[in-house]
Hints:
The protein has 742 residues and is an alpha/beta fold. The protein is built from 28 helices and 21 strands. The strands form 4 sheets. It has a 7-stranded parallel beta sheet with strand order 11-12-10-13-14-9-15, sandwiched between helices. Strand 13 (411-417), helix 15 and strand 14 (439-444) form a beta-alpha-beta unit. Helix 9 crosses helix 26 (697-713) and helix 11 (280-293) runs parallel beside helix 12. The longest helix has 31 residues, at 222-252.
Amino acid sequence: MDLVPALREPLEQPLKSVLGPPTAKVMAEHLGLHTVGDLLHHYPRRYEERGQLTHLADLPMDEHVTVVAQVADARLRTFASTKAPRGKGQRLEVTITDGSGRLQLVFFGTGVHKPHKELLPGTRAMFAGKVSVFNRRLQLAHPAYELLRGDSEESVETWAGALIPIYPATAKLESWKIGKALQTVLPSARDAVDPLPGALREGRGMVPLPEALLKIHRPQTRADIEDARARLKWDEAFVLQIALARRRHADALLPAVARRPKPDGLLAAFDDRLPFTLTEGQQKVSKEIFDDLATEHPMHRLLQGEVGSGKTLVALRAMLAVVDAGGQAAMLAPTEVLAQQHHRSVTEMMGELAEGGMLGGAENATKVVLLTGSMGAAARRQALLDLATGEAGVVIGTHALIEDKVQFHDLGLVVVDEQHRFGVEQRDALRGKGKQPPHLLVMTATPIPRTVAMTVFGDLETSVLDQLPAGRSPIASHVVPAADKPHFLARAWERVREEAEGGHQAYVVCPRIGDEEDDPKAGKKKPPTATEEADAEKRPPLAVLDVADHLAKGPLKGLRVEVLHGRMQPDDKDAVMRRFAAGETDVLVATTVIEVGVNVPNATAMVIMDADRFGVSQLHQLRGRVGRGSAPGLCLLVTEMPEASPARQRLGAVAATLDGFELSRVDLEQRREGDVLGQAQSGTRSSLRVLAVIDDEEIIAEAREEAVAVVAADPDLERLPGLRTALAALLDDEREQYLEKG
């Protein structure tokens, strides 16, 4: 896209020249703010009234918070320590209150003198620090604080009613310091270029952008905040939808080869082989895909389906339709385990139809090849030859498919499995291997609410498979509180033994492998900290190797226990999976390598250790590995987190429903909005400041409609320089690429 801003505006001034190098350095390193515009778009998280105190009862653990509260009492205590062995150590304990809850502040050593003089009972102040737990009580250790004093010119009423903006802050830069910096740059808000077309803004009765910026940072009333937020939400939704609409518009102009299956070809022969009929959902989604494949511009479709809804079968039918039409199809899987699993299940489903050119192969058969980085040289050479000659109609592989050496005869369709695992460059490198842009089908088993699909995947058409095939069994899920009720954990292992004795198999999932000390890279990674209790933080996450050893010698002695993790040799991983699939192993102790695609219908039980260390959608994915056959599934979520903790509530939500769409809402509500846009992938800060993808569905839908109309009328935005400038600011190179979807 040509997104060169028409002019360099005052908002692009570096903060260094306005605030001075030291402050600018902290803002850049800790908040990602570099220019005056960045700082103006760093909006308050909430507002406090000086006369109205905050709710201390709702403080999040382990986060940097700012609270406005009143000192209830302050006590100076002495204690003995290594630095002050004669009992000369000093600790100041200050209790603050908001009428609904209390919070303890602690200051040590020489740091007690100033707060001891200033934090007298009755004093009101803003306090900022990281919430921790000591002796099972919430506290802030050495918080920064700013006393709230009324200026002599202000009347008491004005002072008490003034709204104090509380900014997203860090330990290095408190909210009130950010507020003071904003005071300096706020006059520049008058120069902000308005991205919304005038007619659109007036038609919806929104305030101009400069006014919105002034009102969000220095509101006189709550109504000012509402006006500003309504306007700024629209900016975020609209500019993002313009970017996506331009992407769709550009894609629609690309040429592609229409691929229509033959009436009596490979697809028809495959359908005849199926021992079951497709679900209504599979038939409907297949029709959408086949209609797209029959057009002369590239399909861009997102196929999302519940765990076990039969997405792979739908994708395979699309691949066979393309082979029928003389093209080749490639499926890109995120791990070798998954690529091998897909290759195995595809060749099994196709039978002699996958034996093209081989003795016993069907007349209209094709070849299905596997290509991974760890294959032997001879097998790899043969696979590359089959792709270059067109002998292989279907290839399934990992990142190895993307290498320069891989040449296709006529690549017609790319299927990307578990889209969120792939970077943009990888996807584009594979698409670049077609003579013309190939059709693209992106699959995910992580259900995505409609608003997120419109926001994150707005350049893809969406198909949803929400029906499970007949014969799938329900999965009972329970939380096992190992610390509160150790006998529950003992019972969990008894249940695993019962399943094995009944002829079934089980998975045990752990967050860590356990051989990290041998791995030079792994030593640098800190294990994720559990946020609820100090003692839980100190213990590293449970590891596959330790747990497998403990189970084999203890609770599951006598059962056949094996391990599977990402650092094993590919052949060893494949051998372990084959033995498990063949029923030669009773219990597989694994990391999340089994999260997607692994299909063993005889596995009926799963125990997830330290379940609080996994995200909601990850737990849902893992759970989908059981209940794939006719016997009912069981998933036990083991945790040491206390009952009232957010982690336990999250696990309770997973145990309470099998509806992935419901869980994806829970997941989004608990995470920051930035994660929704995959900022971890793009490496940039999230562009969302005030727009909430779950709550602002209506705004997103309306912004999308407006954006489509604007781009249809003026694809290069020549008549809208303000919008071009906003788009350039939103889409730096990295973010622009991210929207192309990895």
